């Protein structure tokens, strides 16, 4: 193609054009003139695709964060249940240890008038008293735990 000044214009395959011209010393220079409209349309299409991908990734990140929060809540609930079970078991072990201590006191080889009775009813009364006292202490401890909010 020849322009109005008589110089040749070559069309490039990418939508830009090169124009040849002459300078003062008879030298030729090449000037690059891009077609900005086509470039803007192409960049806008890429921007729309990137924006859509960014929105999908943001939605996915929110979903992952929500799932992580849900899992942490479930783990905290299970941990609380385990801690409550530990409290109940520890209290039970304490009460049983107290009953064992009372039994140990009765097992000492000392002379007490209680040991000299021939009636087996006294043995069963003492055993029932120890078991009943231990159960009462355990129930009172559980009620105190519930009242104070330690157990639910």
Describe the structure.
The chain crosses the membrane at residues 87-110, 122-145. GO terms for molecular function: magnesium ion transmembrane transporter activity. This protein is mainly alpha-helical. The protein contains 2 helices and 3 strands. The chain has helices at residues 36-106, 121-148; strands at residues 9-11, 17-22, 28-33. Helix 1 (36-106) packs antiparallel against helix 2 (121-148). The protein starts with 8 loop residues before the first strand and ends with a helix.
Secondary structure topology:
Elements: E1 9-11, E2 17-22, E3 28-33, H1 36-106, H2 121-148
Helix pairs in contact: 1-2
Q: What would the principal axes of the Cα set say about the shape? A: rod-shaped
Span between N and C termini?
A: 90 Å
Mean pLDDT: 83
Count of alpha and pi helical runs: 2
Helical content stands at: 55-70%
- Read across the widest sheet, the strand sequence of neighbours is 1-2-3
Strand percentage: 5-15%
> What does the main sheet amount to?
3 strands, antiparallel
Kindly provide the radius of gyration, computed on alpha-carbon positions and rounded to a whole number of angstroms: 46 Å
Which regions are unreliable across 5 or more consecutive residues at pLDDT < 50?
1-13
Please write the string of helix (H) and strand (E) elements.
Answer: EEEHH
Supply the helix-strand structural class.
mainly alpha
* Overall strand count: 3
